[in-house]
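Quick one, probably user error.
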């Protein structure tokens, strides 16, 4: 695709990157076949190819309309199109540039501005989010259905392991997961503990930056990223083996820290080091698969009559940020299969469930349509549990089904402790 960048963006970091990405696109349209919003709406401008044309027009100096921003807003950032694209178009990065430009040129309607500002201020701030979530969980039965769907039932927390080990890994606790689903982090620490790895958490680390980044608050997102690097750096200097992340949406963002801070002379080198240390928990456990199999085999024992029935069959929803963003499709399924589970993938497992960070609040109609499609396919697998790998996907899917939806690491921890 040929481009003629406008003067305002030519020779800037965003302009150089946008030009390189646009020139890779060959208009083939393969991306539309795997785009969730195009499948739902059938509008070329609600598919990757159409959105690429809109962004091309912007960088070439065309006027930006509210309609342009609306089509960019509707994108889930699922990056399924990147997996499909034969030309290697980095659509996700181009979309971030396009959204940032649109935000600079278009004033949103007041209601949208207030919603976006509220979400960007509340969700990444655990000091505000946690007490509000606790209160909402306390009065959950009284909440309207739409709000109740966003509030998971409060978990009875497991015990954090207390053993010290020579091997140490750092974990991102996240901004919403500790209050919404605390056992995901605790289960991760317990599984690593069983493998002789101590899990450390930096108290000052917070949101990975994804929430504000995708809401259009680019500079605030970069501040979140810098704060995490500052919080983690002493541990890096002390020699932690890895930064383990169990929320795939956070993982894909942390792995892009080097790119996001590439122009920051102070943080660029540190961001590159942080990104190289970042691994999804599936990557970590896959490298310890044999040891994990032996541990679970040694834990297996006849269950008493009153025990919870053993889990044998599970349906797995691979989050977009895991399979498309981090390119780890099949990693969890392979690991769970090695542990003796029958893992059933739904039809169209490459398609998004509609969660996508704050998408359920900014685009609820599309989000729930995608959720219902995904659950229909998952429930057709007749499994005992639905598993996923991202807090947002888990909460979103659970809001539409009575089948338990949990993080796969919680099941692994259960297998180790029962």
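Nope, works fine. Designed sequence:
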């Amino acid at each position: 695709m040929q481009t003629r960048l406008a003067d305002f963006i030519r020779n800037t970091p965003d302009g150089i990157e946008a030009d390189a990405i646009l020139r890779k696109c060959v208009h083939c349209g393969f991306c539309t076949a795997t785009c969730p919003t195009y499948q739902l709406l059938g509008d070329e401008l609600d598919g990757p190819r159409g959105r690429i044309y809109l962004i091309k027009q912007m960088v070439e100096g065309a006027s930006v309309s509210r309609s342009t921003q609306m089509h960019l807003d509707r994108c889930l950032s699922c990056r399924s199109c990147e997996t499909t694209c034969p030309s290697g178009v980095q659509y996700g990065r181009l979309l971030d540039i396009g959204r940032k430009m649109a935000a600079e040129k278009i004033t949103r309607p007041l209601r949208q501005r207030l919603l976006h500002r509220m979400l960007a201020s509340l969700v990444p701030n655990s000091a505000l989010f946690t007490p509000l979530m606790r209160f909402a969980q306390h009065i959950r039965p009284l909440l309207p259905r739409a709000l109740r769907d966003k509030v998971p039932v409060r978990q009875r927390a497991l015990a954090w392991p207390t053993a010290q080990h020579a091997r140490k890994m750092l974990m991102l606790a996240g901004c919403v997961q500790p209050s919404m689903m605390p056992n995901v982090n605790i289960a991760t620490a317990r599984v690593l503990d069983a493998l002789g790895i101590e899990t450390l958490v930096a108290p000052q680390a917070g949101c990975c930056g994804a929430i504000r980044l995708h809401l259009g608050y680019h500079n605030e997102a970069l501040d979140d990223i810098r704060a995490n690097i500052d919080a983690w750096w002493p541990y890096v200097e002390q020699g932690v083996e890895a930064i383990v992340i169990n929320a795939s949406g956070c993982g894909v963002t942390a792995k892009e820290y080097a790119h996001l801070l590439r122009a920051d002379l102070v943080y660029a080198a540190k961001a590159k080091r942080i990104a190289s240390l970042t691994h999804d928990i599936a990557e970590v456990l896959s490298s310890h698969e044999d040891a994990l199999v032996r541990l679970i085999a040694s834990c297996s024992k006849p269950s008493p009559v009153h025990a919870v029935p053993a889990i044998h069959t599970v349906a797995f929803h691979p989050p977009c940020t895991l399979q498309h963003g981090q390119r780890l499709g099949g990693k969890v399924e392979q690991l769970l299969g090695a542990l003796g589970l029958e893992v059933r993938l739904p039809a169209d497992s490459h398609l998004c469930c509609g969660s996508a960070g704050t998408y359920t609040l900014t685009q609820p109609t599309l989000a729930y349509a995608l959720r219902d499609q995904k659950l229909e396919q998952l429930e057709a697998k007749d499994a005992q549990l639905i598993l996923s790998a991202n807090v947002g996907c888990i909460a979103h899917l659970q809001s539409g089904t009575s089948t338990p939806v949990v993080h796969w690491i919680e099941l692994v921890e259960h297998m180790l402790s029962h």
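Residues 302-308 have pLDDT under 50 and may be disordered.
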